[in-house]
């Protein structure tokens, strides 16, 4: 943030090196921790009548994570956004409270303490990332490495020994007793790859092609990349039987393509391609078709009683209905009646106990994180950072849409997890890494720049040749084509025109990447 | 615990959640507010409201500029926004205003476009022209579309900033 230095006659503006105190973040963090810890206590009180056994360790660990992250941000990323961290801590705390509540109700599979450990691990990785990664532009050199890593991670669950099929979706790997969902990490790798790839190639994708009905259509041969990603995401849908992951990757690519090119035609092409692919897959492959049936006719008696039928989604709907406007209160409902109430269906569990009012607060908190990410993308100066921040923020929004849309029956149900809330180590680790990247980019975006580009007058004042609109004779200009007049014609009045790029290239650390997005 | 206490706790918790959300939104609102001191910006707004009363008439705006033809305005001053007080000497060259580093006056303002507007001399008169910006260029409440004559002392709003010709 630049502050004006006041001198009486002519004030010049210089960025001052005044670090923000991050008091807003501290205040929000206290509120978020209070909400999380109160939830732990209320859960214990209403389920068992006393504080849950893990109350003090879990509360202290969550507080420790929040405070440690806050201190590290003060030291290493003082200009980073102040809302993101408290919002994440709040969501993580609410998720932990719900998992703890289900564990206290003896729900099979709910494990609050392991979720707490993964939270600590994820936050630790995020803190290290913020500490050691000083400039997000460094990641750009990993563009093609990220592509290979991403493809490898996607293929991993298909491998014979380590791949696991759980509940019909083959998106798990099992290494040394630990289950992982590699797709969660692949989405970060793909966001990095797409950002690096599009920032260099967007001009061909944006400019070539003819206009039809007001839409700038790309050339046929430029459709290559989108076709490849489309085929890859369809392959995920067919072989790993996971609509969510497939939708996530394809949506990420289309959104970043749109961010990079500003061509709406890409969004249209993407929607048409995915719609066609999904329709064909639904009619050709039985497991995809079964998902569609469950989505369209969940209250069908036969489907409700079938194995892998609509029992879960119908129970989830009932849970949301039982919650009503204000919910039953922490620990007062019956969320454990829904299968996987602690992971895939944590949204309906929260809906039952916090009601629509609580759910809207949670959704708004996600919206805040996404908005801060997109805002960072607007503010950051390099093209790679813009695409990466925009892509990561969008993928979080899309994932939330797919999860919540699946539970509320807007789209077919998928196996994606709700970021920061659903039980699952991979999802937690991956999303904390996403947050670390967003914080790092937002610090670079909001840091006062020493470059003579923002809030500063270029040397010598005007540096462009005078451009005359319309005729030379000094009549009132029309809206005609600008006519360039040689600079020599203009009587120089003291200021010599200088070119701004000289001033920039003299600086030891010029910005890389495209500047006009 | 009584039923009443439980209900109060339940609703109190929802209030706590919303206090968090609304406080976070209050923090975000600081991004939207103009960063200049509120008193200065209010004064400028009043001046901007008062002075362009003559501007839309076009010919009427040109009239006050006519007597000062010899001297004319000598500088462009930012009167509102983060760069308040910044002064540019005027020459015969046009002045490009926007976020792009290539502009003459580079604004640190997410609400301005990279090449937002141009202020240029033509004959004895200065004109302002919008360069197809997203959020528009305004003289008072009137949006600038084509080149519009700009008299000294008339504020031109670009994003969060107001600039005017002086001297």
Task: Give a written overview of the molecule.
The complex is a heterodimer of chains A (517) and B (167). Chain A is mainly α. Chain A contains 16 helices and nine strands. The longest helix of chain A is centred in the last third of the chain and has 34 residues, at 346-379. The radius of gyration of chain A is 26 Å and the shape is globular. The model of chain A is unreliable at 1-16 and 452-517 (pLDDT under 50). The longest helix of chain B has 30 residues, at 3-32. Chain B is rod-shaped. The N and C termini of chain B lie far apart (75 Å). Residues 35-45 and 51-70 of chain B have low confidence and may be disordered. The chains are: A mainly alpha (517), B alpha+beta (167). Chains A and B meet through helix 1, helix 3, helix 13, strand 8 and helix 16 of A and helix 1, strand 2, strand 4 and strand 5 of B.
Could you report the average pLDDT of chain B, rounded to the nearest whole number? 75
Global outline of chain A = globular
For the report, how would you describe the main beta sheet of chain A?
3 strands, antiparallel
Strand content of the residues of chain A, in percent? 5-15%
Q: Tell me the radius of gyration of chain A.
A: 26 Å
Catalogue the unreliable spans of chain A: 1-16, 452-517
Keywords:
heterodimer, A: 517 residues, three-stranded antiparallel β-sheet, 9 strands, 5% strand, disordered C terminus, B: six-stranded antiparallel β-sheet, 3 helices
Question: Gist?
Answer:
Helices cover 58% and strands 5% of the residues of chain A. By secondary structure, chain A is mainly α. The longest helix of chain A is centred in the C-terminal third of the chain and has 34 residues, at 346-379.
């Amino acid at each position: 943030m630049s502050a004006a230095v006041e001198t009486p006659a002519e004030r010049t503006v210089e960025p001052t090196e005044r670090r923000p105190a991050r008091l807003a973040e501290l205040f929000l963090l206290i509120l978020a921790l209070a909400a999380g810890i109160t939830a732990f206590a209320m859960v214990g009180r209403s389920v068992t009548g006393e504080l849950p056994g893990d109350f003090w360790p879990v509360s202290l660990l969550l507080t420790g994570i929040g405070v440690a992250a806050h201190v590290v941000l003060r030291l290493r990323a003082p200009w980073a956004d102040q809302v993101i961290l408290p919002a994440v801590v709040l969501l993580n705390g609410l998720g932990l409270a719900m998992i703890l509540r289900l564990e206290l109700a003896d729900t099979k599979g709910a494990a609050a303490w392991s979720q707490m450990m993964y939270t600590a691990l994820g936050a630790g990785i995020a803190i290290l990332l913020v500490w050691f990664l000083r400039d997000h532009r460094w990641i750009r050199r990993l563009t093609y490495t990220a592509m290979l890593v991403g493809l490898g991670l996607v293929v991993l669950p298909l491998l014979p020994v380590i791949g696991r099929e759980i509940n019909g979706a083959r998106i798990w790997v099992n290494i040394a007793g630990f289950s992982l969902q590699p797709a969660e990490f692949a989405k970060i790798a793909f966001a990095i790859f797409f950002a690096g790839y599009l920032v260099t190639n967007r001009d061909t994708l944006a400019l070539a092609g003819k206009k039809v009905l007001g839409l700038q259509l790309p050339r046929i041969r430029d459709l290559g990349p989108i076709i490849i990603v489309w085929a890859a995401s369809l392959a995920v849908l067919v072989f790993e039987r996971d609509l969510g992951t497939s939708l996530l990757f394809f949506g990420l690519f289309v959104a970043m393509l749109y961010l990079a090119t500003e061509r709406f035609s890409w969004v249209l092409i993407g929607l048409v391609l995915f719609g066609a692919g999904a329709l064909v897959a639904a009619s050709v492959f039985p497991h995809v078709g079964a998902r569609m049936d469950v989505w369209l006719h969940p209250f069908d008696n036969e489907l409700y009683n079938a194995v892998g039928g609509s029992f879960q989604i119908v129970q989830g709907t009932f849970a949301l209905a039982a919650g009503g406007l204000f919910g039953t209160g922490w620990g007062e409902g019956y969320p454990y009646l829904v299968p996987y109430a602690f992971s895939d269906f944590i949204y309906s569990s929260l809906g039952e106990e916090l009601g629509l009012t609580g759910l809207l607060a949670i959704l708004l908190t996600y919206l805040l994180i996404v908005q801060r990410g997109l805002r960072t993308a607007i503010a950051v100066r390099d093209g790679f950072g813009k695409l990466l921040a925009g892509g990561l923020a969008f993928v979080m929004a899309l994932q939330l849409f797919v999860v919540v849309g699946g539970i509320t029956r807007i789209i077919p149900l998928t196996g994606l997890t709700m970021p920061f809330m659903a039980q699952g180590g991979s999802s937690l680790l991956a999303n904390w890494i996403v947050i670390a990247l967003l914080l790092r980019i937002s610090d670079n975006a909001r840091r006062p720049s020493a470059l003579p580009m923002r809030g500063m007058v270029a040397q010598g004042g005007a540096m462009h040749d005078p451009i005359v609109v319309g005729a030379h004779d000094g009549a009132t200009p029309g809206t005609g084509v600008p006519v360039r007049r040689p600079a020599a014609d203009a009587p120089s009045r003291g200021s010599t025109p200088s070119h701004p790029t000289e001033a920039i290239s003299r600086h030891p650390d010029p910005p890389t990447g495209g500047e006009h997005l | 615990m009584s039923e009443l206490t439980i209900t109060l706790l339940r609703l109190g918790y929802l209030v706590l959640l919303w206090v968090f959300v609304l406080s976070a939104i209050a923090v975000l609102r600081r991004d939207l507010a103009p960063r200049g001191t509120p008193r200065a910006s209010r004064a400028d707004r009043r001046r901007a409201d008062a002075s362009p009363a003559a501007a839309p008439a076009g010919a009427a705006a040109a009239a006050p500029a006519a007597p000062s033809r010899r001297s004319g305005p000598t500088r462009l001053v930012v009167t509102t926004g983060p760069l308040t007080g910044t002064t540019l000497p005027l020459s015969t060259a046009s002045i490009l205003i926007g976020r792009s580093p290539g502009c003459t006056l580079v604004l640190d303002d997410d609400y301005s476009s990279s090449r937002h507007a141009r202020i240029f001399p033509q004959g004895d008169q200065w004109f302002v022209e919008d360069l197809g910006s997203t959020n528009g260029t305004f003289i008072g409440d009137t949006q600038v579309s084509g080149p519009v004559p700009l008299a000294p002392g008339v504020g031109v709003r670009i994003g969060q900033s107001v600039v005017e010709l002086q001297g």
